[in-house]
Amino acid sequence: xxxxxxxxxxxxxxxxxxxxxxxxxxxxxxxxxxxxxxxxxxxxxxxxxxxxxxxxxxxxxxxxxxxxxxxxxxxxxxxxxxxxxxxxxxxxxxxxxxxxxxxxxxxxxxxxxxxxxxxxxxxxxxxxx
Length: 129
Known about the structure:
Elements: H1 2-21, E1 24-30, H2 35-43, H3 52-56, E2 59-63, E3 83-88, E4 91-97, H4 102-112, H5 117-120
Parallel strand pairs: 1-2
Antiparallel strand pairs: 1-3, 3-4
């Protein structure tokens, strides 16, 4: 009985540590009636959460016209929709302005998101930085 309690405590602690180790989030600024947002919704939206990058970097949608209480530190104002901003602990580390189509979107996103330490063998540093 005691071993199962220790196992449960260790499992909960490891889950907490894993979730706090990476605070990456992708924010999609969108606007009602935006045809490029609608294209992303059709082509990428249904599969995003099932991809490897989607599991590592959850996405949040923000209405461009309302800003919905966005408290992140952005490098510059968002001017176009869609704009995808990669945040690390509420601080922008990169963005994709516009939607270039599904094939280009995945490549741009992969270059934006730092590789996990296990994959790269060194500290996580965004590409191009």
